[in-house]
Write a structure and sequence with these properties.
The chain is of the alpha+beta class. 42% of the residues lie in helices and 22% in strands. It is built from 6 helices and 7 strands, in the order ααββββαβββααα. It starts with 6 loop residues before the first helix and ends with a helix.
Length: 181
Amino acid sequence: MAQVTTFGTLKSELLAVIGRAPSDAAYQLVRADINRDLRLEEMIATATINLADYAPTTHLSFIEVYVVDSGGRRVLAPTTPDTLNREYQASGNATKYAIAGEVMRLNTSEDPDMVVKYYTSVADFADDDATNDILTRFPGIYWYGSLFHHSKMIRDDQAAAGYQQDYIREKRLAEATNALH
């Protein structure tokens, strides 16, 4: 088996092993699984934003949100939209944030530049040369995830059960590897 580092090598190696190409839906389901279940170092990004810049499609979950001002670094605590509404103040420095639908709000009228450290979603593979850090470092996640979803689609429950166990093992291995850093 060739080293799987791109979407094209993943597809060609799977074709060679199982004798048919999995549906594109299998790869999309693996991506959805990763975005839903995994939080790896490779998925961490940092950006400076204001409230107008907030784009929920790329932020899976926040790790840290803070404002850097003359007083130094001011961490904003996450809360619920209901709590934010009860504690809202027309002026002063924000101390909390909440996400309501696709809108990020603060507990004051302040609209500062904020530094957000967050888990970003894994993008779809645009072409055969496409890759990402997860495919490069943990190809087994895509390998066994694709085989699992492919097996479910063709109603081979016995194969799916085996691939699911391998898939779970690969995700746990990735999480454990990240925990060691």
